[in-house]
Write a structure and sequence with these properties.
Helix content is 26%, strand content 17%. It is built from eleven helices and 14 strands. The structure holds alpha-D-glucopyranose. Alpha-D-glucopyranose binds next to loops.
Length: 433
C-alpha cells in the first residue's frame, strides 16, 4: 500500500468504528428559511442579505440539548458548519467582522458547540466552506455558483480582486479553528469545482498546516472533490490532499467504496433527514426512523459511515420532526448498537430477508422480512455457536427443521411468532464457532 493509503487507513480506525455522526447546518440562512443556498439560488446581493445578519438572534440555542440528542441518538461525532458558502462565521474569527459575535447573538457559537458536544463524549468536527460569497476577493462575475454571477454591477470589481488575499483568509481561518478550540477530530472542507480545486486552494500547504496543528485529525476529500466528484482518493497514488475518506452526498454507494486496487476506501454518506441541509420552513418531507435505521445498517454493511443532518432554525432549535426521528433511532441504537459500532461488511452475501453486518466472530442478522416459516442463513450450517436476540440477549434456538433436509447448507431459526419482535429491524446476533 502507498504510504498515503496506509496512513489513511490508520488515521481512520476509530472513525470507522464510530459509524454514525450528526451534521449540523446552521447560519443566518435559517431566517429566510429556504436552505443554505438561498443567496445563490435567488441571486441575493450582500446588501439584501444584510438584514439577516442584523437580525440573527437564536435566543433558544442550547448546544447542550443538541449534544444530548446526538448522544441519545447513538451518534459518536458531530460536524458543524463553522462557515458556509454565504461566508457567515459562527465563530469569533479575528479575520472578519462577518461573524456571530457581531450579530445580536453576540458570542462565539462554535465555542459553545465544542464545549457541549465534548462534554457528551462526542468527537468534534468542523465543516468549513471553501466557497465564500461574502469575501471581496472571491470571484463573483464569472463564478457559476456566486449569487452575483453574470451581474454587470460587479463586473468592474473583478479586476481589483486578488485571490491570494482570499487564500490567506481561508488558511488563516482554518488556523484559528484548529488552534483555538482544543482537539478537533474532523475537518470537513466543502467543496471543489471547475478549476477551483486542489492547488487553487493551496491544498498541499493547507493540509500540512492542518496536520501540524491537529496531528490526529481526519480530513474529507473535498479539497479535490464534491458531491459529484471524488478526486484522487480512489486511485493507487492519491494526491497529498486527497483526504482520508470519501463523502458521497445524498446517496449510499451501491457497493460501498473501493479503490482501483480493490482495497476499501473509508467513506461517510452525508444525508439529510428531510430534503434540505439548512433550515427550510416548508420542507416536511422527512424520512422515517425505519428508513434512517436501515440506512445506517446499509452503510455499515458496505463498510461506511453515515453523517445525518439537522438544520436548526433561527431561534436555535432543531426541528421537532428531526428530534422525534432521532429519538426513535436512539431507542433502536441503544438496544442494537453492538450491530453497528465497530462493525463492517460481512463475509456472507446479502441475505433475502435483510442485511448482515459483522464484527469478528459475531455476525449480525438485520431481519426486515419475517416471511413464512423458519428464517434461513445460507452458508452457516453447523457454524453457529449461539444465536441471541440482540435487544435483550435472549436465546434463540438454531435448529434444523424436520422439513429442511434438502437444505444442508443453511442454518435456521424460528421466531415462533408470525411477526418480528422489532418491525424497524430485528437484530439476531450469531456467534460463530
Ligand atoms: C453540498 C452543498 C452544501 C452542503 C453540502 C453537504 O456541497 O453545497 O450546501 O453543505 O453539500 O454535503
Amino acid at each position: 500500500m502507498s504510504d498515503l493509503r496506509q496512513a489513511r487507513a490508520e488515521r481512520t480506525v476509530q472513525f470507522r468504528k464510530d459509524r454514525f455522526g450528526m451534521f449540523i447546518h446552521w447560519g443566518i440562512y435559517s431566517i429566510p428559511a429556504r436552505g443554505e443556498w438561498v443567496r445563490s439560488q435567488e441571486r441575493i446581493s450582500n446588501e439584501e442579505y444584510q438584514p439577516f445578519f442584523e437580525e440573527f438572534d437564536p435566543y433558544e440555542y442550547d448546544p447542550k440539548a443538541w449534544a444530548r440528542l446526538a448522544r441519545e441518538a447513538g451518534m459518536k461525532y458531530a460536524v458543524l458548519t463553522t462557515k458556509h458558502h454565504d461566508g457567515f462565521c459562527l465563530f469569533d474569527s479575528k479575520l472578519t467582522d462577518y461573524k456571530a459575535t457581531n450579530t445580536p447573538a453576540g458570542r462565539d457559537l462554535v465555542r459553545e458547540y465544542v464545549d457541549a458536544f465534548r462534554a457528551e463524549g462526542l468527537k468534534i468536527g468542523f465543516y468549513y466552506s471553501l466557497l465564500d460569497w461574502h469575501h471581496p476577493d472571491y470571484p463573483a462575475f464569472a463564478d457559476r455558483h456566486h449569487p452575483m454571477r453574470g451581474n454587470e454591477s460587479v463586473r468592474e470589481q473583478e479586476k481589483d480582486k486578488d485571490f491570494s488575499r482570499y487564500l490567506a483568509y481561508l488558511h488563516g481561518q482554518v488556523r484559528e479553528l484548529l488552534t483555538n478550540y482544543g482537539k478537533i477530530d474532523i475537518i470537513w472542507f466543502d467543496f471543489s469545482y471547475d478549476e477551483m480545486k486542489g492547488e487553487k486552494w493551496e491544498a498541499t500547504k493547507l493540509v500540512k498546516m492542518v496536520r501540524e496543528l491537529q496531528p490526529g485529525i481526519i480530513i474529507d476529500n473535498r479539497l479535490e472533490g464534491s458531491g459529484d466528484a471524488v478526486g484522487s482518493i480512489k486511485t493507487a497514488n492519491p494526491a497529498f490532499y486527497a483526504g482520508d475518506f470519501d463523502g458521497p452526498e445524498q446517496i449510499i454507494p451501491p457497493e460501498g467504496v473501493v479503490d482501483v486496487l480493490g482495497d476499501p476506501v473509508p467513506w461517510e454518506a452525508c444525508l439529510t433527514l428531510n430534503d434540505n441541509w439548512g433550515y427550510t420552513a416548508k420542507d416536511h418531507n422527512y424520512k422515517t426512523a425505519e428508513q434512517v435505521v436501515r440506512g445506517i445498517v446499509e452503510c455499515v454493511s458496505k463498510n461506511g459511515n453515515i453523517l445525518l443532518n439537522v438544520g436548526p432554525d433561527a431561534r436555535g432549535n432543531i426541528p421537532e420532526e428531526s428530534v422525534a426521528i432521532l429519538k426513535q433511532v436512539g431507542k433502536w441504537m441503544q438496544k442494537n448498537g453492538r450491530s453497528i459500532y465497530g462493525c463492517s461488511r460481512c463475509e456472507l452475501e446479502k441475505p433475502e430477508w435483510g442485511r448482515y453486518t459483522q464484527n469478528g466472530k459475531y455476525i449480525y442478522a438485520h431481519i426486515y422480512e419475517r416471511g413464512i416459516g423458519p428464517t434461513a442463513f445460507k452458508g452457516l450450517a453447523g457454524k453457529i455457536k449461539k444465536a441471541r436476540l440482540l435487544s435483550d440477549n435472549s436465546e434463540i434456538k438454531v435448529e434444523k427443521p424436520w422439513n429442511a433436509g434438502e437444505y444442508s447448507d443453511y442454518a435456521f431459526i424460528n421466531f415462533g411468532s408470525t411477526t418480528l419482535p422489532d418491525p424497524i429491524d430485528t437484530v439476531v446476533e450469531l456467534e460463530l464457532k
